[in-house]
Amino acid sequence: MIPVLHPTLPRLLHPAAWWVWGVGMAVAASRTTNPFLLLLVVAVVAWVVLERREVGTTNALAGFLVIGLIAIGLRIVMVSLLGGGVTGRVVLVRLPEVPLPDWTSGVRIGGPVTLEGLLFAVYQGMQLAAILACLGAVNALASPRRLLRYVPATLYEIGTAVVVALTFAPQLIEDAQRVRMARRLRGHSPRNPAEIGRIAVPVLVGALERSLDLAASMESRGYGRAVHRTARSTRLAGLLTLVGVGGVVVGLYGLLDATSPALLGIPTLALGAGCAVAALVVGARRDPRTHYRRDRWALPEWLVAASGAVPAAVMIVAGSRHWDGVVPQQVPAALPPVPLVLVAAIAVGAAAAVFAPVPPLLARTRAGAADPVTAPRELVQP
Amino acid sequence: MIEFHDASFAYDEDAAPVIAGADFVLDEGELTLVVGPTGSGKSTLLRCINGLVPHFSGGILHGRVVVDGRDTRTHRPRDLADVVGFVLQDPVSSFVTDTVEEELAYGMEALGVDATAMRRRVEETLDLLGLAEVRSRPLRTLSGGQQQRVAIGAVLASGPRILVLDEPTSALDPVAAEDVLASLHRLVHDLGLTVVVAEHRLERVIHHADRILLIEEGRVSPLLDPAAAMVTSPIYPPVIALGRHLGWSPLPLSVRDARRRARDLRLTLPDRAPDGVSTGLDHQGLGLDQRPRVCAVERLVVRRGGQPVLRGIDLAVHEGDVVAVMGRNGAGKSTLLASLVGQLAPASGTIRLGSPGTTLDPGRARPAEIVTRAGMVPQDPSSILYADSVADECTAADHDFHLAAGTTRAVLERIAPGVDDEQHPRELSEGQRLSLALALILASEPRLVLLDEPTRGLDYQAKHRLVALLRELATQGHAVLLATHDVELAAEVATRVVVLAEGEVVADGPAATVLAGSPAFAPQVAKILHPLHLLTVDEVIACTGAAS
Description:
The structure holds 2 protein chains of 2 kinds. By secondary structure, chain A is mainly alpha-helical.
């Protein structure tokens, strides 16, 4: 039944493969505060997005990068104002210090801003920004909705809620822009911050109405229908899923937060994933749904997943053995070294752009660009 | 196929029923049209058919609704999904997935159709609705007509025997609407599907209908024959108005039938010579017109997302003009209106608001300066309504525009008398909400009034009041520019029609010339009386009065 695929034929990669790759890159980023390595991570994921994002899908990477920049800015402001626990030697500027009572020892407001403290803030901010960039890249490469198709029917209510939520957020932004524009029609300048409060109600009401429409559409198209389930199997699947999702979340946190105990990392993640798989099996046993063009897991999927796993594995080892350059020294401030092994390891992530097949529309657009006569015109438009 | 046994529905035990006395049986293979004013309960009636009412909406349903032998009391919408396909009013908000193919397959996946059959049915549906070209495109990048066809295909693919559609053409231009309705017609005639449609613009669907259900303030009529129903219906398209006026019996429902009946009429009616310059771009004649100019656009280019949407538009609007901007979905109508009020900045070219000497560039001016020269009612009027009650809304507008207290309320009273002060703007009927939005915009007395798709969701009565109001504005020296798909509205009210295509002006001239000469944008009366230059029933009445 399933035709053998040539690995280079245009098709969409399995969304799970992209998520493994993206989480791998994020884990790699979470293990280092070396700004050069972090920049390299961002460059690698950005390049893969440029090479393999399907035409017409939202580019979530740009939004996540902006949030990342804001995170860096916030971090700098906080450290300048409150101090970051780093006692530096090079004082750049001395802010007026607010006198605090003695019992708040360790906390200060204002005071000297040191070069070392600032660099520490920048590095930490960059780490967060790089992790966000990885998540943004995955969102751009594989729509979360495609992953949702694998949610078992036993979790009907959760599935509906997640689909609605995923639609809700982008629509909220669209609505906000529309209503903000409409405010101009009543003579208001949209830059006035007091406007935000006024537009909130029409925006929220509009988005809620459309979410209800979406839920009605899913309902009347038979979502969650004819799941012949017993109360016991429902409870079992629900419990397994809760434990599973909880385990995956805690495990990921453990992996991404290098300071948490090792037990919180891979073991919890494995336990969570195990429970989630069990829930899927329990749910799928009585799931009458079928799948249209189910995504296949073939060689390119293994290679892409591996190209994300390699940087993660190398950085975890490097971090736990305190290799040079993983966490650059803070005091005194110095140019961080660039360890070539780690650079090579992160660069492996870029291989995903080669291993993954070109998405179909992008392939057609590229073919069209090379041969403008046969170029399908409407495809070039966003 | 569909049986209503004395069904009535109310949201609350004590509340007034939303629909009452629905008692009819719809046979297989018929297209039934639900006709009624806005807020009369059409959507509720449709939602009863697949059980969304009461399972999804809440409320109390009395009587029985049986669909293909299944009682909706015991079957939830999802249990009826294999029999009833339900197409919501706004296709975009009903999309669950990202691309055309996935959307078509979604329903079948939920129903558990096996993979090979699913593949085949997706392909068949793509062909049936002419979507093969766009099969892997993201849904958001499609045109309005394509989105509507995907929404129909998405429910059709799972092979229901009944198709229920709530205003399937309200957002579509005349050609795209005809496409969608032709597809429906084919489904009924080739596949024997049972189709139930609610639609405001009867002129688009009445000739496809086999049966009609009239509904007024929740009271549902028995099944009626279309020609018989139209004799008494409070809502009727121009072709019926003409037939009623001339005392034709049986009433012709289609342009073709009416044209045959009107053979003699065409010979006796005097032709009205088209006023002004016949056609073409010379009519805009910057400076030729003696009336004061309120807006001038020269070589306007506007880009959206890097793509030029308007490519060099020239347009001048004078006091007393009512200009209808027409063109297919995505031709640049809304973009033109948005740039006239400064919501979009031009890439090149100039826009000047106000008469020569006191002109204003909306791209650079502050919003408060623009509103006195050009005011726009957006496509969705509720996006400029924020307050909790009509009275608050009017007070806020007085404050916004620095007017004497009570000015806006007085304007509202003039254009829509009797709107309840205490009501929430979202609870008003579509027509009242439009009136409120229009009153807010008119309060600051802009010389140029812009309306984006004002008749979406309006019934004929509300449309009549709008037409009268726009004419009055024009005689008072305002200029009106409206973007619309509604050819009948354009025929009623426009003195001039501008047709856009691909961001360029392809026709600009008096309404009689441009509309009567166009196969896509001709109103029904013009089609019936071609080659005479008559657009509306009122004009025919005036002519017959003069002739006799």
